[in-house]
Design a protein that fits this description.
The protein is mainly alpha-helical and 187 residues long. It folds into 2 domains: 90 residues, Rna Polymerase Sigma Factor, Chain: A (Orthogonal Bundle); 84 residues, Arc Repressor Mutant, subunit A. The protein contains 11 helices and no strands.
Amino acid sequence: MTEEQIVDYIWNREEKGLRELEEKYENYCYTVSYTVLKNEQDAKECVNDTWLGVWNSIPPKRPNCLKGYIATITRNISLKRYEKKHAKKRENEAFITPYEELSEGITAGNFFEEYMDEIVVKNAIEQYLSQVNKRKRIAFMQRYFYMMEYEEIGEVLGMRATSVRSMLSRMRKDLQQVLIKEGVHVG
């Protein structure tokens, strides 16, 4: 069944759409969630919450790319669970998430909560990523969308973790310059 057909079923409130969605994307959503949480049970629960999130958001939204849409829902649910589970740890340690790492230098609070929904920032990031080579795009997405560790990204790209860290640091600086040009306040 195609993505469009699945969306049509869900749009028309037919549960067959959810069954097809689960059958087609359960493993993918589990991978997205597990990468964030590193916990099998939590990841499974987040995937189940994803189906409810999709059901509740279609309609009114009608995604063009269902796979990306459900990945975003899964990741956001997983991030919320991660934040909740690690709140105490963060109070006691200098613990930084990939999102906080990416938002360093942005002065208007949490970058992703404050700006990510704004079209100007989305477009700036998309424009920036379209101008870098494939290896950099992959590293960026793996770190800041899938929240993979430097070591994991290095294994995928055949690089040392320190090289990945350096490359992403340079990319964040470059992205900050793009955001400045787009009028986003950076510190």
